[in-house]
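@channel sequence for tomorrow's demo:
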Amino acid sequence: MATKQQQDSYTYLDFAKRAFAPTARFNELVVRNIEQTTRFHYEVAGDLIQATIEQLNAAASTRDFGTLASRHAEIMNRLTDKASKRSHELVKLATETQAQFANWVEEATQVARKAA
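structure tokens (generated this afternoon):
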């Protein structure tokens, strides 16, 4: 009797493991995506903070308006270049994420078809 109950428990656990495997995979993808997105936003915030500090230093150390304006223009040009690179990174991140989730949908569909 105990062996039968134990076998039933193993069968149930195996079923539950297979049934929730797509959900576990989805959660892994979501957590990875949140981590990547958070790191990306952290880097963008760092770029903005760096540009702000450079602008403050330029304002504090420059005596004439023409020099200040040219230094601010240089700072903004560097920030624009960084922003352009970051936008390409964001497109790459979005494309990779979309491919991962499309792959997950395909895998989950295959698991559901096998179960049916």
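heads up for whoever presents: The two ends are 31 Å apart (CA to CA).
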